[in-house]
Design goal:
By secondary structure, this protein is an alpha+beta fold. Helix content is 24%, strand content 42%. The protein has an eight-stranded antiparallel β-sheet with strand order 3-2-1-8-7-6-5-4, with no helix packed on it. Strand 6 and strand 7 form a beta hairpin. The longest helix is centred in the N-terminal third of the chain and has 22 residues. The chain is elongated. The chain starts with a helix and ends with a helix.
């Protein structure tokens, strides 16, 4: 009786672990954006927000983005206007070719000497992938002397590793299968 119970539990654990891994397809890789912005100040040293995004396009997609996003594809920043650099959640911060980034939080990392660096944290979803944690940066510098007050911006995002959860689940599934096989050989 005890052997049957162990076999059933091991088999159930293996099935749950393996099907959970097979269904979860996180978004991997990186994606960058470039374009221009209008800020609420004439210098990045005193700016606190973006008031308008101009001609933002995708650049250098890798991982899950390859084949779905191309260099130069238009990026919608509809959820990010206006956007305060120290903000909370903003749904649909950016979207491109079926992928959408929802901002959880953003904060200024550095802001001096004509350069601004903002850290962004959130999730990317779309195109049949599992919603995945991503982080990124928004970087902008003061325009060249005598140039227009439109600032060139760079956004870059990358997937955040899952900390080994997937590997642990795979290991548990394989352990369950091994125990099940061993019990079958003994019985």
């Amino acid at each position: 009786m005890k052997k049957n119970w162990i076999k059933k539990i091991s088999a159930a654990a293996a099935v749950v672990c393996l099907t959970g891994i097979a269904q979860a397809t996180p978004i991997t890789g990186n994606i960058g954006f470039s374009g221009a912005v209008d800020l609420n100040s004439s210098s990045v040293n005193t700016a606190t927000a973006v008031t308008e995004w101009l001609n933002t396009v995708a650049a250098s997609p890798s991982g899950s983005f390859v084949g779905l996003v191309n260099n130069g594809d238009a990026v919608s920043m509809a959820g990010a206007t206006p956007w305060s650099f120290n903000s909370g959640p903003l749904a649909n911060f950016w979207s491109v070719d079926g992928f959408t980034f929802s901002l959880i939080s953003s904060s200024i990392v550095s802001q001096s000497a004509g350069f601004l660096n903002v850290l962004l944290a959130g999730t990317v979803s779309g195109n049949g992938f599992t919603t995945t944690v991503f982080d990124g940066t928004f970087q902008v510098a003061d325009p060249a002397s005598g140039g227009p007050e439109t600032f060139t911006e760079r956004l870059s995002f990358g997937s955040v590793p899952d900390g080994g959860t997937t590997v642990a689940l795979l290991g548990l599934g394989l352990l369950g299968l091994g125990l099940f096989r061993q019990k079958m050989l003994i019985a």
